[in-house]
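Bug #77: duplicate submission created two jobs. Keeping one. Sequence:
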Amino acid sequence: MKKKVLSNRDEKILLLLQQLDFLNRDQINKYFNLGKVCNTNRVLRNLSEYLLNIREGYQTIYYLSQVGRAYVDCDKIRKKGGHVKHIVMRNQFWLFYNCPKDWKNEMKISNGNCSVVTDAIFTRNGFKYFLEVDNLQTMKTNRDKITRYKDLMPSLLQQLGYIPTLVWVTTTELRRKQLEEACKGLKCLIYTINDIK
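Kept job's structure:
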């Protein structure tokens, strides 16, 4: 079988999906400035051999197929599941914050006694930010994680010379208020998913 030659933009779409795991059609449209929905659909249809997709309400979420993974030399296999919406929300924030270059997903932060795996870590204007996405987890789980962040902050202040900002993306105004209450004492920004669309 002859290997299809992809355009530079098509290759960049596959590489972005390798980096970010799952993206919906609107996110791909926005990042690559594809214009109208029908053009975005055409571009993605031309890549159908390289992509798999999931329907989520009115949106289609894309990820790399076996052929797509082989094309960009990617070992990580993505699978459908409850985590997909969480990842799409995280990627929406990445787009909203103008695609930080040093963005790293699922990073462990530890001071020896306490640790937390942050959904993403990035730098903005020379300062570190930790992103947490609140999609399906309980508020108890969120509060436990916030307590661990509070335990980590003194050692991060000593190490960095400043307190990093904790950023939350959540689903509703009620949850935003609950997170604001739990995060008292931390340098924190809280967005709902509607704020960052």
